[in-house]
Fold this sequence. Notes:
Layout: H1 6-22, E1 38-45, E2 61-66, E3 71-75, E4 83-85, H2 91-94, E5 108-110, H3 111-116, E6 130-138, E7 140-141, E8 144-148, H4 158-164, H5 172-181, E9 204-211
Parallel strand pairs: 4-9
Antiparallel strand pairs: 1-2, 1-6, 2-3, 4-5, 6-9, 7-8
Amino acid sequence: xxxxxxxxxxxxxxxxxxxxxxxxxxxxxxxxxxxxxxxxxxxxxxxxxxxxxxxxxxxxxxxxxxxxxxxxxxxxxxxxxxxxxxxxxxxxxxxxxxxxxxxxxxxxxxxxxxxxxxxxxxxxxxxxxxxxxxxxxxxxxxxxxxxxxxxxxxxxxxxxxxxxxxxxxxxxxxxxxxxxxxxxxxxxxxxxxxxxxxxxxxxxxxxxxxxxxx
Length: 214
């Protein structure tokens, strides 16, 4: 991927800020990211040829790149939900296994809040902000907050869910509740979050340490 111009970097920062300002942060799953991965923002997509895609100038997708050149794509609804540790804190300080356990934690912020907490008036190159994944927390099933949720494809209602979120103004919460109510496919019922090898089947939110490079 070619180096972005200053104008492109500024446009991407404007896009990031617009998405953060317009969205209420929820949950984020980032498929493929593993603990130890470090990623930076490389591209903002405003169109797509993929079927059922809602990508547009109003609903951009953001492409992050890891040091091994692996791509991670986050939607406009997912970006504000990125969780970052406050300076000086570690993942162990959270003492949590599930996302619900950090709802009131002062040690971790939504990306939106973290960006707003930076010194005002200081210019930031959004492509130089480094996010290092230092841990993951299981998301709650919509029907039982104490039960970890599986990834979307593990549920019987996955096709209905995809159709529900492909509309112009999707109701993500209602779609997710219907997906989880559709029950887990038989082949995944034996999988457990407590088993390290099984965690690939569960919806987990990565927690990041951030180097702002201001």
